[in-house]
């Protein structure tokens, strides 16, 4: 339990142990090869008094050769190491992103986009720096410590004991900074998420911010977030650097001790000058692994917090769906005693409804009454409702989710537009025949503005369709849905930016190819397109019927029509 951070990182790193194993050979060579140099140096110094210039020259060339080989080995092994870190980082990003796509909408909505971005793009990077090499670094540096010990003890056991007796000091120093590094690391990750979200938010609200002349206000806000992040980073740097310097101080003490005590031993002729110089130059082989090990300890401490953030996402339950039955076609949908809450707030309250194929339905109700939430349950965007939904008398949860999503499509007013061509926005990962695409653009009235687009179907629409009007974007998202010919199409205010005449044309056309349509709208002309109108009030069905019936029998409806809808 004592060092949970190490345990967690080791556990997580296990999946990359094989890769680290393959890196072992070049790393071990890179660690052991440099050990030759001090042996040669010792020989060199002890032979200096020979007065033979040839011997001196041959030693110089030998040392030169050793240094060249050392650098080459180092280059290849480091190159391999950093490539591995990058590969693992890329794998971690993809894996976390895949996990995010398995979450329920409800869980995902608990996080800001900035927070998710920071976890997927930055935390994985930081974590990979540690997990890709933790075993390797520890193994290689312990190997270097042991091999250096072997040589140092063989040179002079007295000097070696002095050098190695300083090792516990490193551990004590590391412990001293434990808590500080942990807390500042948590804080730095948080402020970084806030900063990314702040940036994303301000950028997406650019137009509104300019429109309300609030540039300075929001720029100041961003600056504040940036300063908070900078301060958190500085604090983390302060503690990690301070720990690093403490450790450096200790290992800078070692050579002084060695020179002092070693000098005495030379004077007493217990060791040769060559031995002292070789020992002295070997101190680097003692210091280097200690420095590397202390660096990995710092990385593990920092990564522990990053790992927590990543594991928090991995530990979220996947949006399980065990249904396997293929939904061939929809004949009827029955909602029985449906209730649903976001957190503790009950939004849908015991709703019973029947939706029969080859009919059009309009859902009407005040803003916030629960219309969208109710229809979000049909494609199972939220599954934790109480009550049951039956399709063709079979529980909706027994159907294979992909087949369900082929038959029920939901189009909202602000549907997502890819920064890609018009064609790709309609295809959306599938392919369709020329005939299908022609029909889809005709039925969704894209034909009306297609000639204006510079590259026709190949026109790139910009980020979230920034090169288009809202009504044009809505027509594209409708085309994306109707080309797939679902059995049930849910249009949630998805024509509210389109003029009534065009909307009329769209409805007439899509009614020919889509058997069942449910419309949410505040516009009377749209509502009236359905023969069945369902009035939702405070999460309950208040009344049902045709426009005429409701006008006659439902006061709420006629009041609403008079006050806000009818013109
Ligand atoms: N993700 C969410 N988390 C928590 N509450 C939510 C969430 N989405 C919607 N709500 C709440 O649920 C209630 C119903 O929202 P819903 O969007 O279903 O209403 P609506 O009838 O479609 O409204 P509108 O006509 O304005 O689109 C509202 O009070 C809203 O605040």
Automatic annotation (TrEMBL):
One example of the protein's molecular function in GO is: ATP binding
Under InterPro entries, the record lists: AAA+_ATPase, ABC1_TM_dom, ABC1_TM_sf, ABC_transporter-like_ATP-bd, P-loop_NTPase, Type_1_exporter
Would the keyword Chaperone be found if you checked this record's keyword annotation?
Answer: no
Task: Report the membrane topology from the UniProt record.
Answer: Multi-pass membrane protein
Which residue positions does the secretion signal occupy? none
* Occurrences of domain ABC transmembrane type-1 (ranges): 27-302
Q: Which residues form the ABC transporter domain?
A: 333-563
GO cellular component term of the entry, any: plasma membrane
User: Which residue windows are transmembrane per the record?
Assistant: 21-41, 53-73, 133-153, 159-177, 246-265
For whether the record's keyword set contains Membrane, the answer is yes
Main subcellular localization, coarse class? membrane
Keywords assigned: ATP-binding, Cell membrane, Membrane, Nucleotide-binding, Transmembrane, Transmembrane helix, Transport
The record's listing under SUPFAM superfamilies reads: ABC transporter transmembrane region, P-loop containing nucleoside triphosphate hydrolases
Show the PANTHER family listed in the entry.
ATP-BINDING CASSETTE SUB-FAMILY B MEMBER 10, MITOCHONDRIAL, ATP-DEPENDENT PERMEASE MDL1, MITOCHONDRIAL
What is the name listed in the Swiss-Prot or TrEMBL entry for this protein? ABC transporter ATP-binding protein
Q: Which organism is it from?
A: Tepiditoga spiralis
């Amino acid at each position: 339990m004592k060092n949970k951070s190490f345990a967690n990182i080791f556990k997580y790193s296990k999946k990359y142990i094989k890769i680290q194993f393959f890196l072992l050979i070049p790393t071990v060579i890179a660690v052991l090869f440099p050990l030759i140099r001090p042996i040669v140096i010792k020989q060199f110094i002890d032979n200096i008094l020979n007065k033979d210039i040839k011997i001196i020259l041959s030693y110089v060339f030998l040392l030169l050769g050793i240094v060249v080989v050392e650098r080459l080995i180092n280059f290849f092994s480091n190159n391999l190491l950093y490539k591995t870190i990058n590969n693992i980082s890329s794998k971690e990003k993809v894996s976390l992103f895949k996990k995010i796509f398995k979450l329920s909408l409800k869980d995902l909505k608990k996080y800001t986009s900035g927070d998710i971005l920071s976890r997927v793009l930055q935390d994985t990077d930081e974590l990979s720096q540690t997990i890709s090499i933790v075993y390797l670094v520890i193994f290689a540096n312990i190997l270097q410590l042991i091999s250096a010990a072997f040589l140092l003890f063989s040179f002079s056991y007295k000097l070696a004991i002095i050098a190695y007796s300083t090792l516990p000091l490193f551990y004590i120093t590391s412990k001293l900074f434990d808590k500080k590094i942990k807390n500042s690391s948590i804080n730095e990750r948080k402020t970084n998420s806030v900063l990314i979200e702040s940036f994303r938010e301000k950028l997406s609200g650019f137009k509104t911010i300019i429109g309300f002349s609030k540039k300075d206000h929001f720029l100041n806000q961003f600056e504040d977030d940036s300063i908070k992040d900078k301060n958190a980073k500085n604090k983390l740097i302060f503690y990690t650097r301070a720990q690093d310097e403490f450790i450096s101080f200790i290992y800078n003490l070692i050579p002084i001790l060695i020179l002092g005590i070693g000098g005495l031993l030379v004077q007493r002729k217990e060791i040769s000058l060559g031995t002292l110089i070789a020992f002295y130059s070997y101190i680097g082989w003692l210091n280097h692994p200690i420095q590397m090990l202390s660096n990995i300890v710092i990385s593990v401490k920092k990564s522990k917090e990053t790992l927590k953030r990543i594991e928090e996402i991995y530990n979220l339950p996947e949006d399980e769906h065990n249904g396997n039955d293929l939904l061939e076609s929809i004949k009827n949908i029955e909602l029985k005693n449906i209730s649903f809450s976001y957190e503790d707030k009950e939004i849908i309250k015991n709703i019973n409804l029947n939706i029969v194929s080859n009919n059009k339905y309009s859902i009407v109700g005040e803003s916030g009454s629960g219309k969208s939430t109710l229809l979000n349950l049909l494609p199972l965007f939220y599954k934790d409702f109480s009550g049951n939904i039956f399709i063709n008398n079979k529980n909706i949860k027994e159907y294979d989710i992909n087949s369900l999503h082929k038959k029920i499509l939901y189009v909202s007013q602000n549907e997502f537009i890819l920064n890609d061509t018009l064609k790709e926005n309609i295809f959306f990962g599938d392919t369709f025949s020329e005939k299908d695409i022609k029909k889809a653009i005709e039925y969704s009235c894209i034909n009306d503005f297609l000639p204006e687009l510079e590259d026709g179907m190949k026109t790139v629409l910009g980020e979230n369709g920034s090169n288009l009007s809202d009504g044009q974007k809505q027509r594209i998202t409708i085309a994306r849905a109707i080309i797939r010919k679902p059995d049930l199409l849910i249009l949630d205010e998805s024509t509210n930016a389109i003029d009534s005449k065009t909307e009329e044309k769209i409805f007439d056309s899509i009614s020919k190819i889509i058997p069942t349509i449910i419309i949410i709208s505040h516009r009377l002309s749209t509502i009236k397109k359905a023969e069945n109108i369902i009035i939702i009030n405070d999460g309950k069905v208040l009344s049902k019927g045709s426009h005429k019936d409701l006008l006659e029998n439902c006061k709420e409806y006629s009041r609403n029509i008079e006050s806000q809808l009818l013109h």
